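User: I'm putting together notes for a lab meeting next week and I want to include a structural view of one of the chains we've been expressing. I don't have a solved structure, so I'd like a prediction I can at least talk through. The sequence is below, exactly as it appears in our construct file.
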Amino acid sequence: MTTEASSRVTSSRFVVQLHDATTLHYDLRIQAGDVLRSWAVPKGPSLDPAVRRLAVPVEDHSLEAGDFEGVHEGQRRGSGAVIIWDEGPAGVVRDDPGHLVFTAHGGKLSGGFALTRTGPRRWILVKARDEQARPGSDITAERPESVRSGRIWQELVGG
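Assistant: Thanks for the context. Below is the predicted structure for the 159-residue chain, given as structure tokens.
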């Protein structure tokens, strides 16, 4: 379904938080009004358009949650260290049921991305083939630090 409303670019923000919970994972959050729509991305985003990343939808978060960097201890949403791995303005280009296309303008992620539902609790995150694509790269290994503090998650817990 493509409508004028679903293909219009709306200004937003995105944040990717690296969270050491039960397992280390990345939380991709995209602002939609007054909440952050959220997906857990176990291996993190990629700048290589050939790489498909599993993205599991999780409950929406408050806008304030996207500013958290520190250690959650015994919190309802999980314990462990959290860094702001990347953040910046975003443009939502298309938002249809089961398909979200957005542009990111962060410190590490830039250009187009798409999230596509492939099952009830299964989405795939992929980088668009654009000027910011970097085939063969592994941005999560190349740039493990927080864009806000410069720290890696292990430094938050003294590891």
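A couple of points you could mention at the meeting. The longest strand covers residues 80-96. The two ends are 48 Å apart (CA to CA).

User: Perfect, that's what I needed.
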